[in-house]
Amino acid sequence: xxVTIPRACVMGHxxxxxxxPMVHGHWLKTLGLPGTYxxxxxxxxxxxxxxxxxxxxxxxGGNITVPHKEAAFRTVDRRDDAAEAIGAVNTVWYEDxxxxxxxxxAYGFIAHLAASLPAWDESTRRCVVLGAxxxxxxxxxxxxxxxxxxxxxxxxxxxxxxxxxxxxxxxAHAWDELPGLLARADLLVxxxxxxMTGKPALAIDLAPxxxxxxxxxxVYVPLETALLRDARSRGHRTVDGLGMLLxxxxxxxxxxxxxxxxxxxxxxxLIEADIRAKSGSV
Length: 282
Ligand code: ATR
What we know:
With about 280 residues, the chain is of the alpha/beta class. The protein has helices spanning about 20-30, 45-50, 70-75, 80-85, 105-115, 120-125, 135-145, 155-165, 180-185, 225-235, 240-250, 250-255, 265-280; strands spanning about 5-10, 35-40, 60-65, 80, 90-95, 100, 125-130, 150-155, 170-175, 185-190, 215, 235-240. Strand 8 (about 150-155), helix 8 (about 155-165) and strand 9 (about 170-175) form a beta-alpha-beta unit. Helix 5 packs across helix 11. The mean pLDDT is about 95. The structure holds 2'-monophosphoadenosine-5'-diphosphate (ATR).
C-alpha cells in the first residue's frame, strides 16, 4: 500500500522571499508530521490553470500571495465568509471535490491581538484603521464582526469609501480627520505599507490618542517600526505585525496536515532571526 505524504505550497510571483515555507516547515518538524510545504512561482497568465489543477499536481492545498489573491477569489469553486467579505483568497483546500478559498488574515489579526492582550475586547469599542488595501479590508471585517466600530482612514478617500461600504459598522474618512478620530479611538491599526523598509515613514501625531488605547502595527519588516517605538514610549500597549503573519498561517496548516499548530516563542525567534539576517544591520 502506498502512503501519500500531504503537500502544500505557496503560490506567488515572485515568491522566493516568502517566509511561509519556514513557518510550515517548522511546524511539520516540531510536530513530527509527514508532509512538505513548497514554493510555487507561478506567473499570472498560468495561475488559474495551476490553481484548478492543484490536486492533480499532488497538493492538498496552499497559500496564495501577491499578485494572485484576487484571481484565486475568482477561480475557486467556493469561498468562506471571510474571503467573500474581503474579496481576496489567501488559503485554499479541498472539501470533497471542491476547491475552497478562504482568507485567514482576519483570523490572524484577531488571534494575535487576543494572544498578546487577552482582555482587548473588553475595552475596544472604536477603532481607527489606516489604509484601504486588502489588509485593511480583512481587519475591518474582523473588527466589525466583533461589534467594534471601524473608522477607515486613507490617503485616497475613494478607496476608504469602497472598504467602508462593505461593512455595517464602518465609516470612511480623509487623512485630515485623523486627530479627531484618534481622540475617540480605543485601538489604532496601521494597515498601510508606510513604515515598511523602503517606504516612507508613517508620519502621524499620536498625541490625541488616549494613553489606554492599543496601537497595532501590521508592518513586520522592520520588526520595530517608528510607530511602535513612538507608541511604546508614550505608554500605549502595542501589538506587532509579525504575530499576525504567524497566526494567519494556522488555519491552512490545520486543513492540509490535520493538526492545529501553535505560534510559539521558538517559531517567532526563528522568523525574527531570518528578518534580521536579511535586513543586514537591524
Ligand atoms: P495591501 O493590499 O497589501 O494592503 P495596497 O493595496 O497596496 O496593499 O495598500 C497599501 C495602503 O497603503 C493603501 O491604503 C495606500 O493608500 P492609497 O490607497 O491612497 O494608495 C497606503 N499607502 C501607501 N503609500 C502611501 C503613502 N505614501 N501615503 C499614504 N498612504 C500610503
